[in-house]
Amino acid sequence: MSPEPATPSLLIVDDDDSFRAAVRTTMQALGWRVTEAASAGEARSSLALAVPDIVLVDGMLPDANGRELIAEMRAAGCPAEPIYLSAHFRDIQTLRSLNTELGVQVVLSKPIDLVELGVRLSGALQGHRGAGPADSSQLAPLDPFAELRTAYREQLLAHLTSLATLLQAAASPGGDPAPAIASAHRLRGTAGTYGYFHASQLAGQAEELLLDMTGGVPRDPALLGAHATSLRELRSRLLAEPEPITAVAAPIRQATRVLALLPDRSTREELFRSAHERMLEVDFAATEDEAMQLSQGRVHDCALVSLDLPAPDDAFRAVRRLRSLPGGADLRVAGISAIDDVTLRLGCARERLDLFEVAPIGGLRFIEIVRRLELMGQTQARVLVIEDDAAFLQRASACLRSRDMEVSTLQDPTRCLDALDQFEPDLVLLDIVMPVLSGFDVCRLIRASARWRELPIIVISARLGPEVRIATFQSGADDYVAKPIVEAELIARVSQRVQRSRQAQAQRERDALTNLLLRRPFSERGQERLSMARRQGMAVSVAMIDVDHFKQVNDVHGHLVGDQVLAVLAQVLDQRTRAEDVCARWGGEEFAVVLSNTGPDQARVVLDRVREELLGLTFHGEDGAPFHVSFSGGIACAPIDGATLAEVLKTADDRLFQAKQAGRNRIVT
Amino acid sequence: MDIRTVLVVDDEPDIRIVADLSLRAIGGWQTTLVASGAEALAAIAARRPDLVILDVMMPEMDGPQTLAHIQADPGLKGLPVIFLTAKAQTRDIERFLALGAAGVLSKPFDPMQLPGQVRAITDALGEPQ
């Protein structure tokens, strides 16, 4: 027979009488024995008489600060578990030093919800008495690649230096780009595989730049020099940072490839035109066999399939065959029907078609359907897992990665905001019991940041009584999963939440015509990019763009054609910028772009390419008359032209005005 | 199909090391590592693996050339070859598949995921004829 566990005991050290009363009442109701002290002096006397399991110490006492009292307890070898009560929720530095210097595992911040208090103290008691979380005994192997990653770090530093040198050699007159290309190519593949994604990305950019040069684009020593500088900067950051936040490589962005299986010739012709106008890659097929032929060795991202082929069953069979092709298993399909019919809708759902749409689907609707399918096809949910238990972290990550999710992990919750900015997850998976900042605190911290107010958060906890559940939702979490986790349940909850939140977010934040961000979300994200760059000591460029003589386009060629011009420009902008850049429709015919880690010279090259590409496209007015469109742009750069997005945008706007004054169709930096 | 042994061909030692650990520790497979196309052909001749993971860009004999040698040997019919490349644009993927590769994986890869991705490709192949 195991002995009855002793009654848990608590000493509250706080000079606020009503706070002590509230804590006493709460904890006594949970079966705790509670003693009180109103000062450090009283606490010393109390501890001399009896040592409780837990001492709750307020940060500010009349005769000492809480930190000193805890230091004293530690120095005297007092076995009680100290919990620090803080009035400054945001002062992470102090909290961190409490943890590292004094071994404080739990910090509570005032005001504290009493339900949560009970949960947190019970958790601390479990930790103190050595009964860890239920599943900590089933230790999965630690990250098997951690050692390799650390060992590779030294080599990476050397590779970065050598690539920077080779880039400079390639930039000098008569310099040979071949060694730099080989080095960049190797680094691109290897660094990312070892978890160093920024290095991989920079190397990839360098490789493409060099390949452009060997392909005939004139060599620009300034651009290569700028790249070499970025590589050296990254090297010194890596030297300073103890460990990179590991994340999985972002896939290369590619144009969406659409298959359209439509027996009706006039629909095909109409869609062909709108696809062409929007520069979508669409393969058209009139029959099932043609569709199969087009799909041999060619991977489509999504498909539009007519349900009149001639019967729905023929269409369903075609979809099954397409999905059985290599790489076709995840093909997203919209069924297009001439009539709206419940039986047909049900058939589509049973055959796992993703959308049911009623014809006609010409023009804009076609593009909208493709975008919705694209959004669903983004199976690679990005999940940030915040959890101090390495074994659990490992298991949860492996489980999510097995479903093609990108996972980034974080063991130190005090770095959560940085991690969010760097990784930009679709969802956060969060443990409740962690040192310094609990899951509840992290939830509140995330919800207090404008940018992450809507981010789905799922909390994981080994103890899920009603109190924990209530505290979970009150702190701002959306859902919870019990430990030990059931893998299928975790995957289902995560993927469903991500998909719906992405759909809602796209609708909320994006302009319907151009699919670019609206002004407010742009400003939020742009400012985040600026803040992140400042922390990293990198430059950010901001551009304002305005279509030249747009009023004339509308007046002469019609508003629909004007819309088309805007949509095409948006698409070129989106495709010619990187995933970490931010593009917006600022309003009317004005666009704004934030280019991360990019100086003004590089930004100018990027925008000039977009300008030339747009200029090279031929548009047709409603009367069929061909015409061309240009734009003017102004570029400003943080930190040189200002610290805030508003300041930099203002300067960019002034330069845009200069570009217009100087005769349009040009970029001013 | 059932995989027990995998031959990894890549001239970059760091990629060989991490792929090796990934395929062994997570995939549970036996691995052989070589650094060039010529060594790959010799290794295959000595002992036929169940699968070859082949880097595209290598000095002297590159990935597609190595694949052509494998295909030219009637005794190696049905040996699946997966390309590993840092330039996995749609166009390249199509080109590699047209050459007869079983699949294409891109670098950088996540070592936690690599065996799963390999398995997804080989599962789609079904039983070799």
Main attributes?
heterodimer, A: 669 residues, alpha/beta, 24 helices, globular, B: 129 residues, five-stranded parallel sheet, 5 helices, 5 strands
Would you kindly provide a written description of the structure presented here, covering whatever features stand out?
The complex is a heterodimer of chains A (669) and B (129). With 669 residues, chain A is of the alpha/beta class. In chain A, 50% of the residues lie in helices and 16% in strands. In chain A, helix 6 packs antiparallel against helix 9 (221-240), helix 7 (178-193) packs antiparallel against helix 8 (197-214) and helix 8 (197-214) runs antiparallel to helix 9. The longest helix of chain A has 26 residues, at 146-171. Chain A is globular. In chain A, 42% of the residues are buried. The model of chain A is unreliable at 131-142 and 242-254 (pLDDT under 50). With 129 residues, chain B is of the alpha/beta class. In chain B, 43% of the residues lie in helices and 19% in strands. Chain B has five helices and five strands, in the order E-H-E-H-E-H-E-H-E-H. Chain B has helices spanning 13-26, 37-46, 63-72, 90-99, 114-125, and strands spanning 5-9, 30-34, 51-55, 81-85, 103-106. Chain B has a five-stranded parallel sheet, with helices on both faces. In chain B, helix 1 links the parallel strand 1 (5-9) and strand 2 (30-34). The model of chain B has no long low-confidence stretch (mean pLDDT 87). The A-B interface holds A 144-145, 148, 152, 155, 185-186, 188-194, 197, 200, 204, 248-249, 251-252, 254-255, 257, 297-299, 326-327, 329, 397-398, 401-402, 404 and B 12, 14-15, 17-18, 21-22, 25-26, 57, 86, 88-90, 93-94, 97-98, 103, 106-113, 116, 121, 124-125.
Unreliable spans of chain B: none
| End-to-end gap of chain B | 11 Å
State the share of residues found in helices of chain B, binned by percent: 40-55%
Quote the average pLDDT of chain B.
87
- Proportion of residues in β-strands of chain B: 15-25%
Mean pLDDT of chain A: 82
**What order do the SSEs of chain B take from the amino end to the carboxyl end, as H and E?**
EHEHEHEHEH
Gyration radius of chain B (Cα, Å) is 13 Å
If you compute it from the alpha carbons, what radius of gyration of chain A comes out, rounded to the nearest whole angstrom?
30 Å
**Low-confidence spans of chain A: pLDDT under 50, at least 5 residues?**
131-142, 242-254
